[in-house]
Design goal:
Length: about 280
């Protein structure tokens, strides 16, 4: 199907251009910075990453076929380091301290190729803005070393003082992982599986996690103020009894500290709409 000529009459977003010039001038020439701005504006307009659709949404006087070739050349010739992109996004965040970080992973297949992305985002008003990511050359769960590398990049680029806490689901639990967070004094609230073994110093014995919350009423919360041990690492424990799909379930969260805040903080994980979710990315 022949490419249509762009019929948009809107001028280029000068505010976006100003922001990008301030950030990328030392790395990219003005023509390529303008192309990035056109690309982003078109992305918001056509809501697709298909090059043909994007090229027809550019706010310029060029034919869509010309815009299409510019996009192809840019993608083929330019590699934007993750650090540049992350620092740009960070500079645009409405707040830059007391950040609630969210780590997540999405995995699907594009033809025969596995697309597996480990993502770190910043939660703000029930939306998580993707800040940095790593492509995993495999299927399935991330490894502890991959998670640590992602968090270490954040620390190297932005420091630890801006972090309020890190939220993660049941995939992101392990002795070395919790050990890394504990050693770096990074607050976290991470959900664990119901059958995890917990060592209770007070009882001097190991128990299955859900047993500690089984006598609660549905919807009732409990947090333990005494530190416990999971897989050799010390942490605090909170939980509640729930009903999921008509069956009894538990939401059990381990924390670095402040267990009384754990479930309220972790609730943000259920509410956010991570902009990198696989349904959005699969529009490619």
């Amino acid at each position: 199907m022949p490419l249509k000529k762009n019929i948009s009459s809107r001028s280029e977003d000068t505010q976006l251009l100003t922001v990008f010039q301030a950030h990328f001038t030392d790395f990219l020439n003005l023509a390529r910075i303008r192309l990035i701005c056109l690309f982003i504006s078109s992305l918001c307009k056509v809501r697709s990453v298909n090059f043909s659709k994007l090229s027809s949404g550019f706010d310029n006087k060029a034919a869509s076929s010309s815009n299409y070739r510019r996009i192809q050349r840019f993608i083929a010739e330019v590699e934007l380091p993750m650090k540049w992109i992350s620092q740009l996004i960070f500079s645009l965040l409405p707040q830059k301290d007391s950040l609630v970080l969210v780590i997540d992973r999405t995995n699907w297949k594009l033809g025969e190729k596995n697309i597996n992305i480990l993502m770190l985002g910043v939660s703000y008003k029930n939306v998580a803005f993707p800040l940095m990511f790593r492509m995993l050359d495999k299927r399935g769960n991330s490894h502890t070393s991959e998670r640590i590398a992602l968090i270490q990049d954040f620390i190297n680029w932005f420091g630890k003082d801006c972090i309020d806490c890190l939220l993660a689901d049941r995939e992101f639990v392990g002795e070395d992982w919790l050990g890394f967070l504990n050693e770096n004094n990074i607050r976290y609230h991470i959900r664990i599986r119901n059958n995890f073994k917990i060592y209770c110093p007070k009882r001097q014995k190991e128990v299955t996690a859900w047993h500690l919350f089984n006598n609660l009423k549905t919807g009732q919360l409990r947090h333990y103020s005494k530190i416990m041990q999971i897989r050799g690492e010390y942490c605090y424990l909170s939980g509640m009894k729930t009903i999921k799909d008509g069956k009894l379930d538990f939401c059990i969260v381990v924390s670095f500290n402040k267990p009384h805040e754990a479930l309220e903080k972790y609730k943000q994980r259920w509410q956010i709409e991570l902009r990198s979710n696989h349904e959005y990315l699969k529009t490619i």
